[in-house]
């Protein structure tokens, strides 16, 4: 009797394969390989000028690799524009949040759903407000008048309004007081627990690895280490060598 065929494993939500990215003649990302699977929380760690921002720009299509591939859910999007990648389920919470300060919290959230039919938005608003009850209370307040931690909530809520499959986060701890950093990462973990896969790009190794499934360490454009977050978190020598901590 022939054994029953096993279902094919779904491709990763995000995959970088041998990516080499340049700015002019300057070689930034060097043979980068990275994977984020459905439901995972993965962190990409590195110091200043390590290539973290270039990695995000390459994933989003703002910079195109000279060689290598970027795949989203198995589709090769290396030569496709940013808009296509967003439609495939990417969303980003950018560094320093980059809200529209003169607009209200509600208007900022609505901007995150610009690709969604308005008839679908009630469920997304309910989801965002359940994660961030304060945003419902402040929905008529100008975003620019909020505290740093509150603005981070708006930025995350705005990204979630697009109902992403994979949420990219660029330095979520930047500019936040230590107590707010802890709260921010609690929210990141909560969003991931709701089913959204996440790639968190950070310098703060301790906090990132404490909530992640897996991690990558980036140094001068090369991924020098990868593994289970718990294993990386315990390696004191590694953090000192590659992250300056």
Structure description:
The protein contains ten helices and ten strands. The protein has helices at residues 52-60, 82-87, 105-111, 121-131, 133-137, 148-160, 178-193, 205-211, 229-233, 236-243; strands spanning 14-23, 26-36, 41-45, 67-72, 75-76, 90-93, 166-170, 197-202, 214-219, 222-228.
Judging from the principal axes of the Cα atoms, what is the shape? globular
Main β-sheet, spatial strand arrangement = 6-7-8-3-9-10
Uncertain segments are: none
Beta strands, count: 10
- In DSSP terms (H or I, runs of 4 or more residues), the helix count works out at 10
Sheet with the most strands?
6 strands, mixed
Structural class of the helices, strands and pairings? alpha/beta
Share of helix, binned: 25-40%
Report how far apart the termini are. Answer: 58 Å
What can be said about this structure in brief?
By secondary structure, the protein is of the alpha/beta class. The protein has helices at residues 52-60, 82-87, 105-111, 121-131, 133-137, 148-160, 178-193, 205-211, 229-233, 236-243; strands spanning 14-23, 26-36, 41-45, 67-72, 75-76, 90-93, 166-170, 197-202, 214-219, 222-228.
